[in-house]
Amino acid sequence: MALFSTLHLLIISYLLLLSTIFTFQNKCRNSIWPGIQPGAGRENIRNGGFRLRPGEVITVNAPFRWSGRFWGRVGCSFDQTGKGSCLTGDCGGALECSGAGGAPPASLAEFTLNSPSDFYDISLVDGYNVPISISPSGGTGMCKSVSCVADLNRNCPSSLQVLYDRQVMACKSACMVFNTPEYCCTGAYTQPSMCKPTNYSNLFKEACPDAYSYAFDDSTSIVTCTGANYLITFC
User: Going by C-beta distance under 8 Å and a sequence separation of 6 or more, which residues neighbour residue 111?
Assistant: First the structure.
């Protein structure tokens, strides 16, 4: 029995060593409610969402080979049972997203860990709602920081704007608004040779050169690293 307990503790310790630490930091003036959606078959960490007050820092452990995405929800209100809504990035009216994705538009931080290196990016393919950055620490490889810290809401074309009380709260993607193959990279445009940047995606790319601006924006957007932990900062 003692041998089993010792072995069990060793296994737990080893798995903890393999885990990746995500640190969330809020530099915005108001609270942000980070949402977490795991990849298919991956663990739902931190129940998928929590509140992050201005200046607050919260750490979350992700298990070996985890994949998923993070985003910031804005203008949220929840009752004591965790039911409510967010102005942007809402995940079915719940504080804890529990595997659900955020309603676009939302700025995304995407990760695939230990495959065998980590792959990560910032994506505006689903639009933009809040500045976000990824900073690795302690890893080997390229391991560069990536960010989208420009306020795209200020320069968002009127046709893409999400308004609340006459203020621009988020900026939709052209695919979301027009839903045509050339903007969504669907149909006859499913190949990189066919689906090219548009005037709308170029606006996103000029403001945030590190980020995915459309579906096939791979060459300037994916970063690899091995054995790092990651700081995700809002604003």
Answer: 62, 66, 67, 68, 69, 70, 118, 119, 120, 230
Separation of alpha carbons 13 and 144, rounded Å? 29
When pLDDT is cut at 50, 70 and 90, the band that residue 2 belongs to is low
pLDDT at 52 over 80: yes
Q: How many whole angstroms separate alpha carbon 217 and alpha carbon 136?
A: 21
* pLDDT of amino acid 16: 47
The owner of tokens 């795209």 is 152
**Phi, then psi, of 37 in degrees rounded to 5:** -120, 115
Task: Say how many CA atoms lie within 13 Å of 192 toward its Cβ.
Answer: 4
pLDDT of residue 5: 53
When the pLDDT of each residue in the chain is averaged and rounded to a whole number, the result is 93
Find the angle CA(37)-CA(41)-CA(43) to the nearest 5 degrees: 55
**Dihedral, CA of residue 100, residue 143, residue 59 and residue 232, to nearest 10:** -60
